[in-house]
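Illustration: Methyltransferase.
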Amino acid sequence: MTRRRAAADDELYLTVGAYVVPQLLYAAARLGLADLLAAGPQGLEDMSRKTGSHAGTLARVLQALASVGVFARTRDGRWRLTRAAEPLLSDHPRSRRAAILFAGHEQHLAWGAVMHTVATGQPAFDHAFGHSLHQHLARDEAAMTAAEALRARRAGRRDPAVVDALDLGEARSIVDVGGGGGELLIAILSRRPGVCGVLVEAPHVAERTRARLQALGWGDRCEVVAADAREELPAGHDVYLLAEVVHCHEDVDASRILRNCRGPRVVVVERVLPAGGRASADRLADLHMLVMYGGRERTRREYAELFGAAGLRLRRVTPTTSWVSLLEAAPRVAR
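Result:
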């Protein structure tokens, strides 16, 4: 085999086998290797004993990760952290451990069943796990913890841009539909002392969020309601905010949620797909929502049609400095 042919084969393997590194990162995150090495270099046998892993296999995992810059071996044969390993730390400002844990298990298994989605148009997650992602999080404490950490990190990058772009006008009350841990609602209320908030979440999330808001001193201004937004939402408030909620649902359920927003203003915070068919992170995100939730990303026109089906009219779309835009709608007729 010529060197050129061998190099081409290596390049192809790196492309086809690109899933290996993420799964090795998942193994490292599950074992807590970075946290174990945070205090300093350690020997293989100690690491094996502390993590309950097979020493020979652990050595090969470390060597493979070292080949891409994650972890390194010291001159005396021990293993140490590298800068590239820092996102594996639980408490690092750039921590990606929660995302890696979720991607390495829930997302990995769901995408392994992608042909179910291709064949049926239904979420592969449900096929792989036997229930929906929302049901999975309600049942699996570890998955819920990882998902909450992942959501909080994502919110930390998204929410400042949303708050800067959001104009509440004369609103005195806001309903945050699917508001998670309340980060966005707190950020909004911090800038508007005269506004009160209602956060609506599924029961298994609402309980945690209620305790969290009480502990942070927001209990008097933030009511937490446990409800299924597809069935009912608190009525009569000034603004209904849905931050990356609608894209988790196909059109029928998304329309039901929007129709339950019974107030003068509805603000949907979502990624807006470009009208063209070019490949981009937006298009990949669209398929990811289908595989994981049965949902979808949408173009501006598709959002306008979705609002119309819910009795709403799209009034304006405001880009933000993050990946999302604010799509503001109002009832076609007074409710």
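Reading the tokens back as a structure: The chain has three domains: 3-95, 98-165, 167-331.
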